[in-house]
Specification:
The chain is mainly α. It has 15 helices and four strands. The strands form two sheets. The chain has a two-stranded antiparallel sheet. A two-stranded antiparallel ribbon has the order 2-3.
Length: 383
């Protein structure tokens, strides 16, 4: 098994990594990310198109392994080192607030086409010096990205890497089992499985409304602590029928179909569509908490302490078992959106690579602790 190696991947400065930006990597908890992944495999396996169904069946037979891989960024990579955790945390979210005016949502094609354009959009808002234009309030580009996040670009590059991995496999279509090149063919499939599972995590992140907003934990509305309450406590308290219900919702309504069809093969614009769809649900999530679970509002001192942080006390809420039914529909809808988005990206990557055959693969290789995958889209990143 490979040994985790983070050192070559810290392409930004150590000062940046130690800047104190709090980690927001935990998006759905283990169950949520696992659900998004396994439901996506079954969406494809249930397809009426024979080729798609065969592709989906291959993934579905490995749904538990893929579900594990979907949790690697929050569990395995998070534990490598505090530096890597802080460096990679912004790849799990993007705060649209910092490039919007008065929460007016643009279209996906109007959003930044790369990280440089994203930074320019952040600068533009700050340059307005107006409360109508939220400013990220960071001095350097690295600090801006740490605070504002860059999740869509993570989804884009992982999707492209997956497509390229499928292409590598396609190039070995004629390699037979008795060939000395056959182990490389197996390794190509192993990389496909790895990327498929890791990609699931970041797609799932962007399906969570809180991963698209600077107020990701409800403090601005005196509902501090809402993040974990919604994505983990509520979700974990729901019955064992949750995943089946999410699958039914995703298959019947195909929530991302029309949005993704606007941007064929454009993984970044598709990621932005998912972000916009999630961001639009924040008022609903806030209201659900306020009307059903909130017992006592959160408090936050106006003055900051020596460490630059304010003293906070989280809101008090009812037990999740008392309120889960109120949140259940939104949980299902967001997990279904994430699953549908993921299935579409997986399928597109495979199709764009020429639909390489996977049926030969019989290996039991299992990447339990895979190495961190570099964020190659960041300024100064290698590869």
């Amino acid at each position: 098994m490979k040994t985790l190696n983070a050192a070559p991947l810290l392409t930004l400065s150590l000062t940046l990594a130690l800047s104190g930006i709090s980690s927001r990597a935990m998006a759905w908890g283990e169950r949520g990310h696992d659900a998004v992944t396994r439901v996506a495999t079954r969406i494809l396996a249930d397809s009426k198109d024979p080729e798609t169904a065969k592709f989906g069946a291959f993934l579905q037979k490995r749904e538990n392994m893929l579900g594990h891989l979907s949790n690697v960024p929050d569990i395995v990579w998070k534990s490598v080192s505090p530096e890597l955790d802080k460096l990679s945390s912004p790849s799990h979210f993007v705060d649209l607030d910092f490039i919007l005016k008065n929460d007016k949502l643009p279209t996906a094609v109007e959003l930044p086409v790369d990280v440089n354009a994203f930074v320019k959009a952040l600068d533009k808002n700050c340059g307005k010096k107006s409360k109508d234009y939220p400013c990220v309030g960071a001095k350097t580009v690295d600090e801006q990205l740490l605070k504002a996040g860059h999740g869509p670009f993570r989804v884009q590059t992982l999707s492209e890497d997956l497509r390229d991995a499928f292409k590598s496999l396609k190039a070995m279509d004629k390699v037979q089992k008795d060939s000395p090149e056959f182990p490389k063919k197996e390794e190509a499939v192993q990389r496909i499985l790895l990327l498929s599972g890791i990609l699931s995590h970041f797609v799932g992140d962007l399906a969570n409304p809180h991963h698209t907003s600077a107020d990701y934990d409800g403090w601005q509305t005196e509902q501090g602590g809402l993040h974990a309450y919604f994505e983990t406590d509520i979700l974990d308290s729901l019955g064992l029928d949750l995943e089946a219900t999410v699958l039914d919702e995703a298959e019947r309504h195909q929530p991302m179909q029309k949005l993704f069809e606007k941007h064929p093969h454009n993984y970044l614009e598709q990621a932005w569509e998912l972000v916009l769809d999630s961001h639009a649900k924040i008022p609903e999530l806030t209201a659900l908490d306020r009307d059903n679970s909130l017992l006592q509002k959160s408090t936050e001192d106006k003055e900051k302490g020596p460490d630059g942080r304010s003293k906070r006390e989280r809101a008090k809420r009812k037990e999740p078992t008392e309120t889960r039914n109120a949140f259940r529909n939104l949980v299902i809808l967001r997990l279904a959106a994430g699953s549908d988005a993921l299935a579409r990206i997986w399928l597109d990557a495979w199709q764009e690579a020429g639909k390489p055959d996977l049926s030969f693969y019989r290996n039991y290789h299992y990447d339990v602790k895979p190495d961190f995958i570099p964020m190659r889209y960041l300024p100064g990143a290698k590869g």
